[in-house]
């Protein structure tokens, strides 16, 4: 068991002991990974991949496709805590590989869950997340000793919101890989470079740092106003904006960073608008602290941007929590009453999109501390000028 899994397992069990829950069944891949340490590649690329984790104070049992068996056991999960389903074949060079005998054991998830529930010995109140299907909920309710099954999405997201030290270190690694990519791309950029070439430079730096590129928004000119658009073969021309919104994962934990550049000296309008959004994000960096709500942090950003002269500044959010998913709760959105707590990690951002003109953004990661917050990103936040 690695340090992240040890830390998240301990936190989950501590929170479970302090709650009204006696056990937990989760099917969201991020929740399964938090509980067991196993991050399924298939669950990340195949819509509808099915898996589950059964958690009690004494045991954690993973239920997944037989195709996951070898990888799951390789992460340190014991064979007695893994219940496979479906047909998949492994050959063993030595003839004693536990994964080699794990094909065609249970026909489907439901039959595997019956075995996993029996091993887990649930009692009392069992919490489930939103991806646990109704047939599985019915099986849980039928277990001897189970009194009721309750929704636990908010509870588990609350547990996951406070990042352990090993989780934060993985996020810092993802951030460093992302920042290296942006810095390298800006260093190699110039007139005629294409969006696709810029995205490729960022991705290469991420891979070299040991991370997995996950999204690569590198858009120029009028296309910089297109939120979440893919990079194309469009060339960057003097006087135009370049907007990066890029992220990767490092051992399952995300980064999400936004930066803006201009090819040649910025126009007065470009400089004015960027100064305003930079002021808004700067106020967030200064203000974020325990006890304030995510909605208040949103208001801080909007009011500061408008006070700096960009009016009206309309946004549906100005940031989000981040961790083993790129968008976690809470979202820094209007009216959110979720309070910031020490250990939470957020991306704070103030994008601005004007169709036909261009878009710009600055986005940084912070972790809430007892005194306020600390910035996890270190990359220059200014409007970067690339020589034309």
Summarize, please.
The chain is of the alpha+beta class. The protein has helices at 3-18, 29-36, 41-45, 69-74, 109-120, 134-141, 153-161, 165-188, 195-208, 268-287, 294-307; strands at 23-26, 52-56, 59-65, 82-85, 124-128, 146-151, 212-220, 241-250, 253-254, 257-263, 319-321, 328-331, 345-349, 352-354, 358-360, 363-368, 373-375, 384-386. The termini are far apart.
Question: What can you see in these coordinates?
Answer:
- This protein has helices at 3-18, 29-36, 41-45, 69-74, 109-120, 134-141, 153-161, 165-188, 195-208, 268-287, 294-307; strands at 23-26, 52-56, 59-65, 82-85, 124-128, 146-151, 212-220, 241-250, 253-254, 257-263, 319-321, 328-331, 345-349, 352-354, 358-360, 363-368, 373-375, 384-386.
- It is of the alpha+beta class and 388 residues long.
- It folds into 2 domains: 3-160, Creatine Amidinohydrolase, Chain A, domain 1, CATH 3.40.350; 165-386, Creatinase/methionine aminopeptidase superfamily (Creatine Amidinohydrolase, Alpha-Beta Complex), CATH 3.90.230.10.
- The strands form 4 sheets. Strands 4-3-2-1-5-6 form a 6-stranded mixed sheet, sandwiched between helices. Strands 7, 8, 9, 10 and 18 form a 5-stranded mixed sheet that branches.
- A hairpin with a 4-residue loop joins strand 16 (363-368) and strand 17.
- The chain starts with a helix and ends with a strand.
- The relative contact order is 0.11.
- The mean pLDDT is 95.
Q: Helix and strand layout, with pairings?
A:
Layout: H1 3-18, E1 23-26, H2 29-36, H3 41-45, E2 52-56, E3 59-65, H4 69-74, E4 82-85, H5 109-120, E5 124-128, H6 134-141, E6 146-151, H7 153-161, H8 165-188, H9 195-208, E7 212-220, E8 241-250, E9 253-254, E10 257-263, H10 268-287, H11 294-307, E11 319-321, E12 328-331, E13 345-349, E14 352-354, E15 358-360, E16 363-368, E17 373-375, E18 384-386
Parallel strand pairs: 1-5, 3-4, 5-6, 10-18
Antiparallel strand pairs: 1-2, 2-3, 7-8, 8-9, 8-10, 11-12, 11-13, 13-16, 14-15, 16-17
Helix pairs in contact: 1-2, 5-6, 8-9, 10-11
């Amino acid at each position: 068991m690695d340090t992240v899994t040890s830390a998240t397992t301990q936190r989950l069990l501590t929170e479970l002991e302090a709650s009204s829950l006696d056990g937990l069944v989760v099917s969201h891949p991020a929740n399964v990974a938090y509980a067991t340490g196993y991050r399924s590649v298939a669950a990340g690329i195949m819509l509808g991949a099915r898996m589950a984790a059964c958690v009690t104070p004494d045991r954690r049992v993973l239920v997944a496709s037989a195709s996951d068996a070898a990888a799951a056991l390789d992460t340190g999960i014991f064979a007695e805590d893994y219940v496979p389903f479906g047909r998949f074949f492994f050959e063993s060079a030595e003839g004693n590989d536990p994964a080699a005998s794990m094909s065609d054991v249970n026909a489907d998830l439901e039959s595997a869950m019956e075995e996993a529930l029996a091993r887990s010995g649930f009692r009392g109140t069992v919490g489930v997340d939103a991806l646990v299907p109704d047939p599985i909920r019915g099986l849980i309710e039928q277990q001897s000793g189970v009194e009721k099954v309750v929704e636990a999405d908010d509870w588990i997201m609350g547990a996951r919101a406070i990042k352990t030290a090993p989780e934060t270190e993985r996020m810092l690694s993802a951030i460093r890989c992302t920042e290296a990519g942006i810095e390298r791309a800006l260093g190699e950029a110039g007139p005629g470079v294409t969006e696709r070439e810029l995205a490729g430079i960022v991705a290469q730096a991420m891979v070299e740092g040991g991370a997995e590129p996950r999204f690569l928004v590198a858009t120029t000119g009028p296309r910089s106003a297109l939120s979440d658009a893919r990079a194309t073969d469009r060339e960057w021309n003097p006087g135009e904006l370049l907007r990066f919104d890029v992220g990767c994962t490092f051992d399952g934990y995300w980064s999400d960073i936004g930066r803006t550049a201009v090819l040649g000296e910025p126009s007065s309008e470009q400089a004015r608008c960027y100064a305003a959004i930079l002021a808004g994000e700067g106020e967030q960096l200064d203000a974020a602290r325990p006890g304030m709500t995510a909605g208040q942090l949103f208001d801080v950003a909007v009011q500061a941007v408008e006070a700096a002269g960009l009016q009206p500044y309309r946004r549906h959010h100005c940031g989000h929590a981040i961790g083993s998913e790129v968008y976690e709760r809470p979202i820094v959105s209007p009216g959110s009453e979720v309070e910031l707590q020490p250990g939470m990690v957020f991306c704070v951002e103030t994008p601005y999109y004007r169709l036909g003109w261009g878009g710009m953004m600055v986005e940084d990661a912070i972790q809430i501390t007892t005194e306020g917050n600390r910035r996890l990103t270190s990359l220059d936040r200014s409007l970067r000028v690339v020589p034309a």
